[in-house]
Design brief:
This protein is α/β, with parallel strands linked by helices. It contains eleven helices and 18 strands. It binds flavin-adenine dinucleotide (FAD). Flavin-adenine dinucleotide binds next to α1, β2, β12 and α9.
């Protein structure tokens, strides 16, 4: 008789990969996770756990840890050159959501999966040889092994996607925007406010974090650079933010002096299909909604949908993968569409756009 216990390899111990490892490990599957980095990296802004992701966190029993690690942020205020509030919006829609620094969320999810899954850090997949019954995997350092299923949860620049589906350029749609974040520890008076300043095509935001504040630069630029080249990112930031007012000069100098930064293009991933045989994609690798679109919540929800589909038909992986894709695409499709709307709100292109946004927020606030 065929066993219900699958051997699953997950590439990436980020939000999607760690959630899936915890869920599949608890369901009794034999799970291995390979993560390119040496451990959980500390960079990254706070991210939201809301909607279906909140329920996933409850199921994993990590809600109280997430509450302890959560920020107190409830409001985003927009300020002018002199730091005066010109408009604001609420950031929390319900009591069933938390905002948690990305590194904390990632560490808590990895911890939740550790006792039921094998984690190999500083490791990656070099080659995949799929056949009808499984996938032979050649690793960078570990010995070659076979798995029933390989999941690429390795983020927007997924290595599994490149190996199984082809070059990144075929699937990545750059939206002409970039994001750069760093933890700076600049003292802030309030721990419940994010402060943002806009000039046409640029936003700079100070986030209180959880005791240690962070900065985020989000900007529009048609210049194409390699996001893996830190010097190119720093150079572009210097050019784009030259002469931008408020506290930008001070914050940019602090960012440029920091090593532990996150820099990426804001892109949408568009894949005609998420699975090829026994290789499938999850999280940003499959359907990045980048920055404004609930990327972390989508990643956790997708992991739960995939785990449920595999639980329903462990002997028929293609059917399980088709079910996962059809259900989770219905969740990510509208979120991907929402990215451009959110970008007009947070990074207006013109002074008129900024003024109209501020006016609209003031009208909403008066109601
Ligand atoms: C260090 C870091 C900081 C981030 N900061 C922000 C931020 O400030 N704002 C924001 O909006 N989004 C940020 N993100 C992206 C955000 O976490 C994701 O959009 C979202 O959580 C979806 O999660 P994911 O698991 O699909 O991807 P990710 O959270 O990106 O996780 C992917 C994981 O795969 C690993 N990986 C990548 N390539 C390979 C490979 N070839 N082999 C093995 N492992 C690999 C990565 O190291 C990472 O751990 C950050 C991501 C990372 C990795």
């Amino acid at each position: 008789m065929q066993s219900d216990r699958l051997t699953v390899l997950i590439s990436g111990a980020g939000i999607a990969g760690a959630t899936l490892a915890a869920l599949l490990g608890r369901a009794g599957h034999e799970v291995t996770v390979v993560e390119r980095d040496q451990g959980v990296r500390s960079s990254g802004n706070p991210v939201d756990v809301r909607k279906g992701a909140y329920q996933v966190a409850e199921r994993l029993g990590v809600m109280s840890r997430l509450q302890d690690a959560a920020t107190k942020v409830r409001e985003l205020i927009f300020v002018d050159n002199a730091g005066r509030r010109v408009a604001s919006m609420r950031t929390r829609q319900s009591d069933r959501e938390v905002e948690v620094p990305r590194a904390d969320l990632s560490a808590i999810l990895v911890e939740a999966g550790r006792s039921n899954a094998e984690f190999l850090f500083d490791e990656m997949i070099n080659k995949l040889h799929p056949d009808d019954r499984g996938v032979e995997v050649i690793f960078d350092r570990a010995a070659t092994r076979r798995f029933d299923l390989v999941v690429g949860a390795d983020g927007i620049n997924s290595g599994v996607r490149r190996l199984a589906f082809g070059p990144e350029a075929d699937f990545v749609e750059p939206l002409g925007m970039y994001v750069a974040t760093a933890t700076l520890g600049v003292p802030l008076e309030r721990d419940d406010l994010v402060i943002m300043h806009n000039e046409p095509g640029t936003a700079v935001a100070l986030h209180p974090g959880t005791g240690v504040s962070g900065v985020a630069f989000m900007f529009r630029s048609e210049v194409r650079i390699d996001h893996r080249d830190p010097d190119a990112g720093r150079q572009l930031l210097k050019e784009v933010y030259r002469g931008v007012g408020w506290r930008t000069e001070e914050l940019l100098s602090a960012y440029l002096a920091t090593d532990d930064v996150y820099f990426d293009s804001i892109s949408r991933i568009r894949m005609p299909t998420w699975s090829r045989g026994r290789v499938t994609l999850l999280g940003d690798a499959a359907s990045c909604v980048s920055l404004f679109g609930d990327g972390s919540s989508s990643a956790m929800e997708g992991a739960a949908t995939l785990a449920a589909a595999l639980g329903e038909s462990p002997h028929d992986i293609p059917t399980a993968l088709a079910r996962y894709e059809s259900a989770h695409r219905a969740v990510t499709r509208p979120r991907q569409r929402g990215v451009l709307i959110a970008s007009h709100l947070l990074i207006p292109r013109s002074r008129l756009g900024i003024a109209l946004r501020d006016q609209a927020l003031r009208l909403v606030g008066r109601r």
